[in-house]
Amino acid sequence: MRQLGVLPVTGLWAGLCLTGGLYATWHGYGGRGFAATLTAFCFLFGVMLLFAARGAPERLAARFGSGGALILGAAIFLVYVVYVLATNNASALRLGSIAGLVFVPLALAASASGAGAGAWQDFLIVAGVWVFVKFSPSHWLWPYPGGRLAYVFTVFVAVGTALGCFALVRRLGGIGYSIGWGKSWAFWILASYVVFACVAIPLGTWMHFIRFAPQWNRWSGLVFTSVAILFFTAWPEEFLFRGLLQNLLSKASKSDTAGWWTASVLFGFSHITNLGFPNWRYVLLASVAGLFYGWTWRKTGSIFASAIVHAAVDVTWHFLFRS
């Protein structure tokens, strides 16, 4: 795989952050609160991207050891402190909540020192990260600006914490947390997307879950929406369900197939509350999607490849179908 190094990843990060900052400024945002929010966004997004650079996690782990996770957790917490102070939203309860959400998983990872991959602490951390993203009071934790970035910031903190746990403390192999391109990847990605579409579109239509309804008025935002879905939805979900959960299940069961199918079903059930509870049609389609995402991850060894398939599916749904 031709993986991006630190400098190209830094350039990608700078370009995306600059674009986001200019976009927000164009919409009238400014002042101390905006500056602190943009700083928090850039730092947390930088953590998410830096760990995908070639050799970055290994160098950080070699230089700082498990202590690097503590430094990372402290930095995430400090950024949150700056954010709530600058936006006049500081409270002991908010600070305590973020501290617990960051440092409890890191403590669990440290308690599993010496245990093989698939220890109970590993699965508890993954479950905790998912609950944090899915059910935490994100709009209360990130109230400025009007809760519009609450989900994104929640994802950033969850990914940063999970990276500290599994890349720096547990040093779990085979995650595939990288940005790059490998031989035959185009085939695996395109095949996964096309075959899934051939299965999901007839199935979803038959179940009256989706209907063909192109949103032509939205196509001007195709590039912006696609990038946002890739980095803020597909990437973190692939990291959690393929790079971590499927990886851990496969190692614990000593069966790639068992890990693949189990993670796919759990991925499906993670959507049971979407668009109304219990949404069994969503569970079924998401489980099928998980099989194809997991298959892509197995074939390429990278969450970047499975995230591209995931993002392509979500973008297609967003622009061409309605639920």
Nearest-integer average pLDDT: 95
Q: Tell me the number of structural domains.
A: 2
Question: What's the β-strand tally?
Answer: 4
Total helical elements: 13
SSE blueprint and pairings:
Blueprint (H helix, E strand, L loop, with lengths): L1 E2 L2 H21 L4 H20 L5 H9 L2 H20 L5 H20 L8 H16 L2 H4 L8 H20 L10 E2 L3 H22 L4 E2 L9 H32 L2 H14 L10 H21 L2 H18 E2 L1
Antiparallel strand pairs: 1-2, 3-4
Helix pairs in contact: 1-2, 2-4, 2-8, 4-5, 4-8, 5-6, 5-8, 6-8, 6-10, 8-10, 9-12, 9-13, 10-11, 10-13, 11-12, 12-13
What does this structure look like?
By secondary structure, this protein is mainly α. The chain folds into two domains: 1-172, no CATH class; 182-323, no CATH class. 73% of the residues lie in helices and 2% in strands. It has 13 helices and four strands. It has helices at residues 6-26, 31-50, 56-64, 67-86, 92-111, 120-135, 138-141, 150-169, 185-206, 222-253, 256-269, 280-300, 303-320; strands spanning 2-3, 180-181, 211-212, 321-322. It has a two-stranded antiparallel ribbon. It has a two-stranded antiparallel sheet with strand order 3-4. Helix 5 (92-111) packs parallel to helix 8 (150-169), helix 9 packs parallel to helix 13 (303-320) and helix 10 packs across helix 11. The mean pLDDT is 95.
